[in-house]
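User: Hello, beginner here. Can you help me understand these amino acid letters and fold codes? It all follows right here:
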Amino acid sequence: MDRVVIIGNGGTGKSVLARELGKRTGLPVFHLDAVFWKSGWEPTPKDEWMMKVEELVRRPAWIMDGNYSSTMDIRLKEADTIIFLDYSRWMSIYGIVKRRIMYRNQTRPDMAEGCKEKLDSAFVKWVWNYDKERAPLLREKLKKVKDTQIHHFRSRKELQAWLARL
């Protein structure tokens, strides 16, 4: 496990898992939210974003958490381990509300400086619709991935059991 991609709906704990795996393995962790967003929730221009991700995946070892469909294929191709946190929409909604409460008026550790935690209707809608709009496409994409260890977790309990065995 040298190149790890962690994907899943918002609020599933991708960044928390990335930090935990980073501690356990010593691998560098890259939170894609912190790479993509600039202060004040300013997105990185597409060309610059693609170059940043391509640069990161060329490194010999890493853990990356985040979705970002524009770079998904690049990351999946270079990963030796994929972790898909495929929880219910209710768990995801719970996660984003909990995160909003925990980091109210603060920038969370996995986000770019100057991006205070927020919860808007567009993001809630994205999280709510993930199960129907994004997850099925991701499941199909993962079926086509070869020579890569894939861990597909449907609950936090499954993930915790796997972590206990590491």
In short: The first strand starts at residue 3 and ends at 8. Helices lie at 14-25, 32-36, 46-57, 69-78, 89-102, 121-133, 135-143, 156-165. The mean pLDDT is 95. The chain is about 50% helix and 15% strand.
